[in-house]
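FW: tagging you since you asked about this chain on Friday. Here's the raw sequence from the shared folder, copied in full. Didn't touch anything.
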Amino acid sequence: MHRNPVPDSRCNFMKNNIKKLAEISNREERLIIGLMSGTSLDGLDVALCRFSGAGRQTQVQLLAFESVRYDDEFKSGIRRVFARETVDFQWLTLLNVVVAERHAAIVNNCLKKWNTDAGSVDLIASHGQTVFHAPRRLHGMPDCPNATFQIGDGDHIARRTGIVTISDFRQKHVAAGGEGAPLALYGDYFLFSRPGEDRFLLNMGGISNFTCLPGSGDTDKVFATDTGPGNTLIDACMRRYFGQPFDSDGRTAGKGNINESLLAALRSDPFFNQPFPKSTGPELFSMEWVDKYLNKMAGTIAPEDMVATLTRLTADTIADGLLAVSGGQNASLYVSGGGAHNPVIMAHLRARLQGWPIDTVESLGVSGDAKEAVLFALLANETIAGETKGGAAPGGVPLVSMGKISFPD
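HL: got it, structure written out here
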């Protein structure tokens, strides 16, 4: 049996790409762009980072950051498939390319704004846009595995920017036995662990999650978990009743009164009693979920009271998780994400966590708004330059290289 030989030029293409990866891996410093678009669907965070080292020796410098808002038409297009069990499959297929093309264009515009040549950037780390998150605990089908799905194809980003792109990080986490979220664990562990200080790093995006970093440095006790809603219910409520994308500075919540009966009903949801670590998404925490409990109650609730109640729900379920994991002992809490800018959420947290030192992650030397994008850039750095230590399994999931590599050529 004879096979047609592959043309030498094609072999050279692949050889050169592999050589390029090896060169990037062996450099003392790497320039990596991290891209993050979360479940809030508000826009794309773009972080230009300089890395040296890997693992616990990682050093990162944020050189530039831009948060680019999505226009309403683009957000509406994503919402046609976002967290929906039934979708237009053709539109989902097209959107995989549309999102990638938009993200690539944003990167190119940022590079131009920053006077940075694409040839000087080693890698793009693209999280993509989550459209459905389906851990077994949510889909409830015992014969089916954990799963999660992000769109925004890495090949298109690599081709349009001319930069090697690493994408689709969450699939390896699922394949290794995790739920695909939250992935902040690895970056938080490498960058922010401190001997002798028990730390929690809380991110409040659409969904809230925290990373537990014991001062002992024991990887068996390091883990990350979702707690439940962050801004997703507040944002959905603001869209339904006020036609606004979010509750700016918590002003609407500040005008309302907390409905204790509804709050208690929402907190009774079985998700909140499930053991840590766990993950979730807007597939569960939607206004339809709220309506399920609301319809069992007598009377009506004013829109401002609804926002106030959902804001308190976010804070309470976060605090419940932190107190449960800490065993009632005070620990240091560092906050990031959109919820960190909501003074009502923060006031509720401080009231529940009295005695806890609470600060933003800026005090640790990283922009809170840029943190998630930086952490995905770190995952790309680990994929290229990390050295997995056998047996290490922070959060119960083995340390594995994450992400699929796409070349421009």
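FW: The CA atoms of residues 262 and 294 lie 7 Å apart.
HL: agreed, and DSSP finds 14 helices and twelve strands in the chain.
FW: great, closing this out.
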